[in-house]
Amino acid sequence: MKSFFTKILSFFLAVFILFSTTSFTVNMHFCCNKMVDLAFFSKAESCMETAQKKDNNSKQCTTIQEKDCCDNKTILKEGDDTFKKANTISEIETLVFLNNFVYSYINLFEGLEKNTVSFKAYRPLLLSTDLVILNESFLI
């Protein structure tokens, strides 16, 4: 159930980021205070263009030649591009630290294949004199 809500939340956050970063334009054409055309991403058609397509002049304004009869409105939503870009790790000290950390973490859980004794084949030095007597350091 938790993964289902996580998937839904991540989907809505992705849509929110997409919506907030994109920009779009909505153009509206009003004639006699009635919306005649609505267009996304393009320019709205004027009254004359729609009248020629419909061939129905009865719904047009009586004073279509007046300048105040038709009006265009544009709503512009500009995208927000102020997000901080991801920086790549370029410092050598950080890379060396990460490399050593990963290597030691991977090897932390690995055991030795067999018990090895590193000093098994070690031969001690042959001493010609006894160092304890030479330095006169006796334990009492």
Can you give me a brief rundown of this structure?
This is Secreted protein. The chain is α+β, with helices and mostly antiparallel strands and 140 residues long.
Verbal overview:
The chain has 140 residues and is an alpha+beta fold. It folds into 2 domains: 1-47 and 62-77, no CATH class; 91-132, no CATH class. 36% of the residues lie in helices and 16% in strands. It is built from 4 helices and 3 strands. Strands 2-1-3 form a 3-stranded antiparallel beta sheet, with no helix packed on it. The longest helix has 20 residues, at 2-21. The two termini are 74 Å apart. The model has no long low-confidence stretch (mean pLDDT 77).
Taking all residues together, what is the mean pLDDT?
Answer: 77
Q: What is the strand tally?
A: 3
Q: Which strand order spans the largest sheet, edge to edge or round the barrel?
A: 2-1-3
Biggest sheet character: 3 strands, antiparallel
The rough form would be described as: rod-shaped
β-sheet strand percentage: 15-25%
Radius of gyration of CA atoms, rounded to a whole number? 41 Å
- Order of secondary-structure elements: HEEHEHH
The number of helices is: 4
N→C terminal distance: 74 Å
What count of domains describes the coordinates? 2
User: What is the helix fraction of residues, given as a range?
Assistant: 25-40%
Class from helix and strand fractions: alpha+beta
Low-confidence stretches: none
InterPro entries: DUF8199 (IPR058512), HYC_CC_PP (IPR058060)
Keywords: Signal
Pfam families: DUF8199 (PF26622)
Organism: Galbibacter orientalis DSM 19592
